[in-house]
Design goal:
alpha+beta; elongated
Length: 65
C-alpha cells in the first residue's frame, strides 16, 4: 500500500510518501514501512518512535489476548 500525505503546516509543507508492505510469515504478518520525503521538521527518530507506537496500538486491536 502506498500513501501520499500532504502537509500544509508551514514547518511541514510538502508531501511525504509512505509505502507499507505486509508479508505472510510463520505465525503472523511482517509489516515493513518505508518513508520518502520526510519533512525536515520531523526527525527520523521521532518518526520511527511514532511508527512504533502506532504499530503497538494496532497490535493491541488485532492480536489475540
Amino acid at each position: 500500500m502506498v500513501e501520499r500525505i500532504r502537509f500544509e503546516a508551514p514547518d511541514r509543507a510538502g508531501e511525504m510518501t509512505v509505502a507499507t508492505t505486509l508479508t505472510a510469515v510463520p505465525g503472523g504478518t511482517q509489516v515493513s514501512i518505508a518513508y520518502e520525503n520526510l519533512p525536515p521538521s520531523i526527525s527520523p527518530q521521532d518518526n520511527e518512535e511514532g511508527t512504533r507506537q502506532a504499530l503497538a496500538r494496532l497490535a493491541e486491536l488485532v492480536e489475540p489476548s
